């Protein structure tokens, strides 16, 4: 027998294995090429909305961090003072419960406005807490009977600004005014 025929099956087998390996490599390259765009597309898809949302978030943050307009603060203070004076006017148009309860709450709102005018960039929680502390301090000062302070309270401005006589219920009214001012403030920081 001739040795060549036995070499042929081995060579044919090697050639077939090489061809299979080449096909497997091509299939693998094709699959990788098909997966690469899909991977890039899935990675790019979430990025597009993020870049679109970022400017909106930054604009919202800038609006929240922008200082308050002093002109608006003065207007709010004027309205608050007018409402407070109307509540103390004794007019029959003002219901008795409004006259009894709104003046102290509006006084704290006015303090809030005054503080916001002095510090337009301050956060609303800090302003509300400070306005409430000032209101409580003024109420506590009503327990003092120093002659000069009593004389100041006998005047109309002294009565309106410093009040007369301690009332525990006034503390709740001041707290309601601080919450009201905090809630009405458009600056959300």
Roughly how much helix do the residues carry, as a percent range?
over 70%
Strand content: under 5%
The ordered string of helix (H) and strand (E) elements is HHHHHHH
Helix count equals 7
- Kindly state the mean pLDDT as a whole number? 82
Radius of gyration: 39 Å
What is the first-to-last residue Cα distance? 98 Å
Total strands: 0
Give unreliable regions as ranges.
none
**SS-derived structural category:** mainly alpha
| Morphology call | rod-shaped
Main beta sheet: none
Plain-language structure description:
- The mean pLDDT is 82.
- The protein has 189 residues and is mainly alpha-helical.
- It is rod-shaped, with a radius of gyration of 39 Å.
- The longest helix is centred in the first third of the chain and has 63 residues.
- 81% of the residues lie in helices and 0% in strands.
Care to give the gist of this entry?
The chain is mainly α. 81% of the residues lie in helices and 0% in strands.
Topology:
Elements: H1 3-65, H2 70-87, H3 96-118, H4 124-141, H5 147-153, H6 156-162, H7 168-184
List keywords for this structure.
189 residues; rod-shaped; 81% helix; mainly alpha; single chain
